[in-house]
Amino acid sequence: MTKSELIARLAELNPHLYQRDVERIVTTIFDEIATALARGDRVELRGFGAFSVKRRDARLGRNPRTGQSVDVSEKAVPFFKTGKLLRERLNTGK
After folding, report:
1. 49 and 37: one domain?
2. Full-prediction pTM beyond 0.90?
3. Separation CA 48–CA 31 (nearest Å)
4. Based on the domain organization, do 48 and 85 belong to the same domain?
5. Dihedral sign, CA of 69, 74, 76, 79?
6. Which helix (DSSP H) or strand (DSSP E) does residue 78 occupy?
7. Are residues 68 and 62 in contact, defined by beta-carbon separation less than 8 angstroms?
8. pLDDT per residue over 28-53, tens digit each?
9. What residue ranges of the chain have pLDDT lower than 70?
10. Do residues 62 and 28 both lie within one domain?
């Protein structure tokens, strides 16, 4: 599901809201999650899962085309861990 599909679905389920308002709500939620992760905070949505940031250490990599060694710097990567209710819902097919 893309962001625009999510907005369309939420607007369809909430006919009392304008689509532009639904779009603003979804964008604000995503922006707040991204801002919190950029600060290094953890974002937990009960029953759905938790977003956090993991650090990958600097390492020595290899250019696949030339085989030459390349230094790869330290990186921050977003990480998502599913919540128990989401895992159960996925595994029961409901």
Report:
1. no
2. no
3. 18
4. yes
5. positive
6. strand 75-82
7. yes
8. 999 999 999 999 999 999 999 999 99
9. 93-94
10. no
